[in-house]
Design goal:
Blueprint (H helix, E strand, L loop, with lengths): L7 H24 L5 H17 L1 H23 L4
Amino acid sequence: MSNRYVSPGLMGAGVIVVALFAFIVGSTVLGSPADFSAATASVEVFRNTLWLERTLDVLVQGGIVLAGVIGVVVLLRGIRV
């Protein structure tokens, strides 16, 4: 650990600068919300393609995730296979 001393005035100035930066970024992002109408339409197309047209892929991906979870559990518990 370092034993450097930071004066309260410098610490206060740093907090003010960080708060001002957060306020500016937050007001920019929250002040002009994005238009999600086009994104919603593309999400519906993607959702239909993923769940209705590619069910075998989804099942295989689920199996891979399950195998990965079981592998992590085996590694963490120290079970020898």
